[in-house]
Amino acid sequence: MKILILGATGRVGSQVVSYALCDGHHVTSLVRTPDNIQIMDKKLTVIQGNVLNKNDIDCVMSEIDIVISALNTDGTNTLSESIPLIIEAMKKENIKRIITVGTAGILQSRTTPDLLRYQSSESKRKSTRAAKEHHRVYDILTHSELEWTIVCPTYLPDGECTNMYRVEHNFLPEGGTVISVADTAKFTYQQIKSTKYLKSRVGIAY
């Protein structure tokens, strides 16, 4: 399989790259600074560019089977501004499947079900900026024809892959407060072979 991984230099994205290469897939990554990619593998193609540049996105989308986006908000509008370009490029290449890494803030609230967690008292975060950006991406994907999945982790410390976590459609598993970067990356990667969470958010936590 040929996988395009965006956000490949981030904490989650870099581990997704490792999982994909370990399984023998061909990986393409679009990064602003190629030197930040520490992995050397003949099945890895690193292309310098910017997800906000339409030509760069069009270039890396050729012959791709599936897209995984682990892009960070970085205090900007990069997520919401890049997703229309990504969707358009995928449509041109007839690519249907995209898996993105979001945030637990855009899952439904258990206390106030008509609100998202970041909009309710359920969320303890003081800043909602990142959640609002992920919310925009969620809305855009919802109105697309893509087969999308948004993996929504809660607090993300570094840690080993345990494969011992809980997941739930559209909600954060009850009482969940933390999930490691490694487990989040592993679950995200595993969705390339799963149709269980198509057109759905999925909460993940211990």
UniProtKB/TrEMBL annotation:
Domain called NAD(P)-binding: residue spans: 7-193
Listed GO MF terms: oxidoreductase activity, acting on the CH-NH group of donors, NAD or NADP as acceptor
A Pfam family matched in the record: NAD_binding_10
Protein name as catalogued: NAD(P)-binding domain-containing protein
Organism: Domibacillus aminovorans
